[in-house]
């Protein structure tokens, strides 16, 4: 009996990985140091100010006196437009408009383009105990640099057990129960020329709707092999065999072969796993004696890259059998 597949069925199965998510914070002074900002006036609690929001605000509307829905918890950047408007006002109005901003518990005000800051403004910042900073960077570049740093530093993170490698340019996270052979598979992939990012424990971060993984610093480049112990992959195979971090493009889960389980033989349905709220392609690869798991993972990585380019071999094959009229490229017909 012929089994008929509905090639239009794009059903998705999503597996969630629930790990403890760490929502981070960063102190203001760290951002100041990292970006080389000039301190014009520091608040008394400067070293203790904590940033929890990656967004930045340009308070142009607030400088006109409109304070409704003022996002005061963000860093405030005074760019060229805001500065020119402020300096177009008389001294008394400058003072009043800036006081309206500084009266809120804002983390700091940053002037771009090395703009000169009126002493009255500096005195006002000291009175309200608000940090004033300055940067030589242009406004757009300054905001971009701040946002990039805050998005990375404040991004939600967690850790998962597994192996993370870059295989043919695809970031592959290998998961599975203990003793299923994850480390041995990762080592074989390294010997095939691929790059190890992390063994056993992987720190993952959600940045800009992507998952980025790296090894915890204290176990970076190390690998544990049962019966052998700890090895240093970088020392044994060279710096070309390791990578500090990579984007995770797919997750492959290894599990012991189950004779009574019907494994996917076509790959038409899409399966996903959710990490930190982001869906990633997910494959389950059964392990048993005689199967070359490293080779299968290599092929899975290459196949994932093909899917990213819009080519799905399983759908092409079923179309060729059941709906050949749908194929644009007639050479893709079976036997063509």
From TrEMBL:
Keywords: ATP-binding, Carbohydrate metabolism, Kinase, Magnesium, Metal-binding, Multifunctional enzyme, Nucleotide-binding, Serine/threonine-protein kinase, Transferase. Gene3D superfamilies: HprK N-terminal domain-like, P-loop containing nucleotide triphosphate hydrolases. It catalyses: [HPr protein]-O-phospho-L-serine + phosphate + H(+) = [HPr protein]-L-serine + diphosphate; [HPr protein]-L-serine + ATP = [HPr protein]-O-phospho-L-serine + ADP + H(+). Its cofactor is Mg(2+). Its EC number is 2.7.11.-, 2.7.4.-. Residues 223-232 are annotated as: Important for the catalytic mechanism of both phosphorylation and dephosphorylation. The active site is at residues 161, 182, 200, 265. Residues 286-291 are annotated as: Important for the catalytic mechanism of dephosphorylation. The keyword DNA damage does not apply. InterPro entries: HPr(Ser)_kin/Pase, Hpr_kin/Pase_C, Hpr_kin/Pase_Hpr_N, P-loop_NTPase, Ser_kin/Pase_Hpr-like_N_sf. Mg(2+) binds at residues 183, 224. One of its GO terms (molecular function) is ATP binding. Residues 153-319 form the HPr kinase/phosphorylase C-terminal domain. One of its GO terms (biological process) is regulation of carbohydrate metabolic process. The keyword Oxidoreductase does not apply. Residues 27-149 form the HPr(Ser) kinase/phosphorylase N-terminal domain. Both phosphorylation and phosphorolysis are carried out by the same active site and suggest a common mechanism for both reactions. Homohexamer. The Walker A ATP-binding motif also binds Pi and PPi. PANTHER family: HPR KINASE_PHOSPHORYLASE, PROTEIN YJDM-RELATED. Catalyzes the ATP- as well as the pyrophosphate-dependent phosphorylation of a specific serine residue in HPr, a phosphocarrier protein of the phosphoenolpyruvate-dependent sugar phosphotransferase system (PTS). HprK/P also catalyzes the pyrophosphate-producing, inorganic phosphate-dependent dephosphorylation (phosphorolysis) of seryl-phosphorylated HPr (P-Ser-HPr). This is HPr kinase/phosphorylase. The gene is hprK.
């Amino acid at each position: 009996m012929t089994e008929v597949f509905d090639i239009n069925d794009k059903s998705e199965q999503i597996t969630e990985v629930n790990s403890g998510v760490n929502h981070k914070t960063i102190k203001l002074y760290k951002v100041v140091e990292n970006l080389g900002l000039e301190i014009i006036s520091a608040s008394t609690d400067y070293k203790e100010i904590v940033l929890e929001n990656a967004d930045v605000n340009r308070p142009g509307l607030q400088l006109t006196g409109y304070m409704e829905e003022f996002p005061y918890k963000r860093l405030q950047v005074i760019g060229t437009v805001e500065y020119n408007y402020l300096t177009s006002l008389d001294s008394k109005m400058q003072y009043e408009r800036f006081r309206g901003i500084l009266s809120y518990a804002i983390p700091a005000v940053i002037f771009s383009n090395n703009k000169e800051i009126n002493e009255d403004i500096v005195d006002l910042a000291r009175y309200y105990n608000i940090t004033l900073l300055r940067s030589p960077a242009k406004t757009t570049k300054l905001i971009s640099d701040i946002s990039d740093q805050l998005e990375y530093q404040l991004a939600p993170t967690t850790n998962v057990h597994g192996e993370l490698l870059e295989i043919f340019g695809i970031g592959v996270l290998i998961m599975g129960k203990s003793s299923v052979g994850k480390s041995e598979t990762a080592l074989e992939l390294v010997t095939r020329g691929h790059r190890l990012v992390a063994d056993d424990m992987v720190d993952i971060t959600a940045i800009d709707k992507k998952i980025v993984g790296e090894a915890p610093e204290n176990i970076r480049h190390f690998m544990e092999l049962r019966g052998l112990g700890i090895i240093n992959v970088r020392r044994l195979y060279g710096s070309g065999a390791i990578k500090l971090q990579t984007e995770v493009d797919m997750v492959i889960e290894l599990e012991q072969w189950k004779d009574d389980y019907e494994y996917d033989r076509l790959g038409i349905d899409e399966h996903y796993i959710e990490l930190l709220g982001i869906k990633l392609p997910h494959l389950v690869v059964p392990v048993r004696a005689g199967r070359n798991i490293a080779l299968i993972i290599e092929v899975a990585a290459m196949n994932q890259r093909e899917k990213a380019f819009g080519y799905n071999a399983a759908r092409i094959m079923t179309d060729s059998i059941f709906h050949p009229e749908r194929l644009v490229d007639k050479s893709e017909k079976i036997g063509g």
